């Protein structure tokens, strides 16, 4: 007997619509899925079955209904005939001949998932994440997230980048600062990588020239905000033989264009369901020196306390300002001061650096820039930051034997997804967010 | 001025070969790369430049040579004309007009990387990993590894699987056993995920039905072997609505076929360089019950101490046995006993399970099988293993509200790469291997 599932359902649907009268046996199908809705009338039961491909109306007799405990979200297997039907869920319906419960759901669901939206607090959703994710809107978020990661890789592969996997257990990976998780590694202290920064640079220097990584990174920041996670997926790239950070900004512009094109081509349904509007990526994303942005914020918005960096409110204001002036959802802020950037950042003049942030809809989604590639300059930069070069021995060794000029950037996958979909809380775009309160599920 | 790099070099090479006499200005190019070899003659210096695309012969005058400290592995920028030439490295050579050192390499290299192979111990290679990886053979390993990961994803996407990212910081992820890294997570004890097992199952149950993940996993095994790493990349998949583990074995067979086809199509050069022979994947990979394998090993090979599992020697012997009998590099061992499998494994009869290992060239590369999807059965299975269900509260919750029958498998990326390339030590296929002695670089 034919089993019907996903694409097959579409196929069987077509067969049943076109050839029902000729080949009745073709219409005998088996379908499996979750009970999404159920409506018991006197003479008939409407059971709406859900799987990853959508919903299907099934017709049961009162006897079939009584014989089973058909609770919402139970997984069932139905056998029967598909017949043409105009209903809310499609062009066919299944007349059940037999019903089998594969997994019985408890009668009381902690959250209702068959409404138009999940009408529960985010905390409750996250507590019952597996159930909450069954809602078609929640599924759509992670389809889109998977597509973003996929487009990131495809685009970079086309540009001859190589995918790498670098260690998350590190001794030297901590870039300084205290927001790092520590653990005992066979008697030594190890850290969880805050980023693949050192390792991606080392791979450029190791002759791969162009590398990217999609991997988990860890930040032990104790404060909880709506835009930070303690564990997230970083889309990292690093590129050798660049002459200016403009090349990185151009690359990111093309990359974002490509990602949104792919989404608009293949994920229309999901975007509509989430009422998300894809941004236009200008060929020339506006650029502002950080200092210029600070002056604008001070003179036009009365924001005076900024010093060498923007706070979240500053990012929002300058982003809106640029949107009003140019219509761009994106803004590159450039020339961050050395005192605010990590030691490996390439200096530009006495105070500034060859670095940038990308602001998208009011929030930073990328930090990038050129890196120091000269051994002595790097040692001096460490010393100026009060770091002991001996703590970075193996990273530094890479620069002793020929390191090309290079630079790179990183994009937080969850944050990009959240901003794209217009969510105010990044937890919505992490399957199992990790924050100060949450280590389960 | 045109910058030449990788594909561009090919292009410029062609222009220079075909149009040299007509458009002399086209031939003025800039190239950048590492000094791979250098041979100084009285009247001329041959400098062999290396970048990720290969090698290029460059001709310098004695004066140019003297003006610079042209140490091996220094990164240089050369400007000059490309002319046709028959040499060991290609069909063109560059007559340098100007030479600039971008990064000076120290004169003493800890390892020589311009020979036919790296003639140093693996330990020394790993100590100087960034330098060692510059050898074209080492580069080839990681090109192939990237391609394996990519093919894994492409194949599964075609089968309507969704990519997921699950947390590596977990509370419940430890499947039991002591080989788990612990850390302090804001006052709570967290573990590093040994696998995405629980989370990939939860995503199937959350309605995604078919999921995969390419991510880091962590095993705190103190013993060092040539086939284990303490951190590695796991290619994981999980699939709902299966009726038998045969479906998983068929899927893996097709998956492996696809991966090797992609390699054979696009990575001929790398495979030749590494003298690696791709295996044939039989459409029907031989299957043996574990108990049958143990009987064969006992009666035909005098191996008597095996009990419920194979040791590495047993895996090798039975793999060779099957290879001699059928010509297959692959072997599925099935029906592992319950006492040797994790609590979530679907039982088969009183003693056995619906599970399997895949042995490839004498080493296990996959463990897979059906999982228990019934809440009560799972609770009982935990109790039988002496585990407290309360420790798995959020994992268990997933099974309360309708869990489809499902199963999955995992492949270790480094191990698959090593076996494919015929390496006896898995450290060769990890960019920065983590073992009991190694947390740097």
UniProtKB/TrEMBL annotation, chains A, B:
Residues noted as binding L-aspartate in the record, renumbered to the chain: 175, 219, 367, 371
Keyword Ligase included in the entry's annotation: yes
Main enzyme class: ligase
Domain Aminoacyl-transfer RNA synthetases class-II family profile: 142-441
EC number(s) recorded for this UniProt protein: 6.1.1.12
GO molecular function, one term: aspartate-tRNA(Asn) ligase activity
Transmembrane spans: none
Domain of life assignment: Bacteria
Pfam family of the protein (one): tRNA_anti-codon
Catalytic reaction equation(s): tRNA(Asp) + L-aspartate + ATP = L-aspartyl-tRNA(Asp) + AMP + diphosphate
Region named Aspartate: 197-200
Cross-referenced HAMAP family: Asp_tRNA_synth_type2
Protein's UniProt name: Aspartate--tRNA ligase
Organism: Fusibacter bizertensis
């Amino acid at each position: 007997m034919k089993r019907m599932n996903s694409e097959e359902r579409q196929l069987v649907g077509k067969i049943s619509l076109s050839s029902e009268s000729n080949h009745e046996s073709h219409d005998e199908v088996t379908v499996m899925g979750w009970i999404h809705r159920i409506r018991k009338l006197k003479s008939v039961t409407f059971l709406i079955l859900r799987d990853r491909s959508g919903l299907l109306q099934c017709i049961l007799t009162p006897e079939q209904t009584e014989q089973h405990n058909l609770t919402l979200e139970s997984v069932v297997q139905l056998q029967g005939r598909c017949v043409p039907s105009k209903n809310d869920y499609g062009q066919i319906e299944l007349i059940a001949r037999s019903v089998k419960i594969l997994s019985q759901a408890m009668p009381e669901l902690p959250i209702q998932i068959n409404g138009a939206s999940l009408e529960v607090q985010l905390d409750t959703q996250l507590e019952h994440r597996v159930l909450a994710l069954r809602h078609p809107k929640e599924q759509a978020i992670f389809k889109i997230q998977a597509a973003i990661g996929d487009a990131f890789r495809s685009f970079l592969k086309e540009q001859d980048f190589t995918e790498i996997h670098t260690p998350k257990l590190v001794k030297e990976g901590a870039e300084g600062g205290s927001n790092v998780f520590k653990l005992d590694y066979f008697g030594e202290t190890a850290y969880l990588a805050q980023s693949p920064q050192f390792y991606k640079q080392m791979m450029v220097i190791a002759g791969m020239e162009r590398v990217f990584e999609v991997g988990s990174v860890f930040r032990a920041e104790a404060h909880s905000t709506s835009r930070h996670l303690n564990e997230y997926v970083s889309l990292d790239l690093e590129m050798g033989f660049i002459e200016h950070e403009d090349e990185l900004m151009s690359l990111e512009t093309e990359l974002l264009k490509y990602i949104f094109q792919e989404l608009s081509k293949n994920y229309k349904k999901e975007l509509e369901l989430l009422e998300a509007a894809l941004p236009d990526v200008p060929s020339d994303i506006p650029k502002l020196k950080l200092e210029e942005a600070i002056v604008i914020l001070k003179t036009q918005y009365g924001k005076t306390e900024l010093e060498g960096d923007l706070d979240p409110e500053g990012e929002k204001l300058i982003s809106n300002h640029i949107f009003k002036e140019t219509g761009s959802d994106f803004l590159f802020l450039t020339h961050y001061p050395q005192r605010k950037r990590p030691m490996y950042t390439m200096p530009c003049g006495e105070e500034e650096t060859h670095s940038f942030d990308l602001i998208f809809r009011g929030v930073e989604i990328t930090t990038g820039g050129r890196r120091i590639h000269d051994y002595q300059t790097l040692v001096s930069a460490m010393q100026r930051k009060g770091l002991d070069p001996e703590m970075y021995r193996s990273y530094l060794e890479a620069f002793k034997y020929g390191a090309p000029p290079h630079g790179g950037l990183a994009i937080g996958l969850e944050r990009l997804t959240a901003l794209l979909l217009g969510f105010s809380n990044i937890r919505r775009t992490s399957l199992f967010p990790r924050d100060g309160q949450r280590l389960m599920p």
